[in-house]
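Exercise 7.
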Amino acid sequence: MRLRLANAQRHIELDPAAYRLPDAGAVRRYFQDVLAGPATGDVLVFVAVASGQVAGMAELVTMPDPPDHQILVPRRAAQIHTVVLDGHRGKGVGKALVAAAERSAADRGVAILIAGIFAPNTDAIRFYTRAGFGEHGISLSKTPSSAVADV
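Solution. The predicted structure, written as tokens, is:
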């Protein structure tokens, strides 16, 4: 839970209009559900411990296959979300977490890992690039005009 909240705070510093600090109770319930749920492999959490303390985590979230009516070739995909606490960065913790998640993903038939970075987060771009990730398409977004009028 502490990792998710620390990650949120770091993202708020990057773009306060896009990110928020989630409710701690909601974060706790989410991870309790993930850890107590059936071992379907839809969400896997990898935790790094350094000097007896939690230093970081990687969350591997399997995405649904494209439906039969879509033109995409069906490939099992998963999103990866990695966070390493300050004080543990630059020491190989994130690299080890991504490597463990990648091995697990391959064991589960995942053909593509996606690291979505939605803010000008140059540290995350550099980290994932060093881990072998590259550009995969472009994600465009727009706020519908009726939603802009409501704000």
